[in-house]
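dude i think i finally got it to work??
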Amino acid sequence: MAFTLGLGWLQSRGRAQPPAALLPLPIGEMGFALTNHRGEPVRPADWIGRPTMAFFGFTWCPDVCPTTLSDISGWLDELGPDADRLNTVFITVDPERDTQQVLADYLANFDPRITGLTGSLAEVERAVAGFRARFEKVPRDGDYTMDHTAGVFLFRADGRFASIIDYHEDRRFALPKIRRVLT
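look at this
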């Protein structure tokens, strides 16, 4: 048994990244500048002092994004007035199509406390890098779609990363995670 464990350690040595390199940066260490769907500039420092719930997606998304935004809307509703203490943001990974107006029209279908963010591709890439998320433009039938991280990121009011709510995670587990960042 000890030999097997030692062999496994030797084979995996140098290949694994330290866990901290995989976690999102604290919000205060992120350095992007985006614009919300109301035309107002947004920087990560604006979020410090309130817990943050952030999701990456795009308005042309056929299933993951509208499903997750519906889930977020339900969570906010179930949290009641406590939800007003959250920064709740939807950051597009498709700034080419997702203008401020497109985001505003799309988000009208969900809880009004969800703020859409867009900007230049370079700024979206900076945001994605800070969250340690990913996205990729994928050609499809003469057009394209976006492959992207589908989890919902949760941060404490001081900007420290708290947790991720996985896509399709049962609300019995999602809501307690959100409540923990509200305390």
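Residues 16 and 159 are 26 Å apart (CA to CA).
im so relieved honestly
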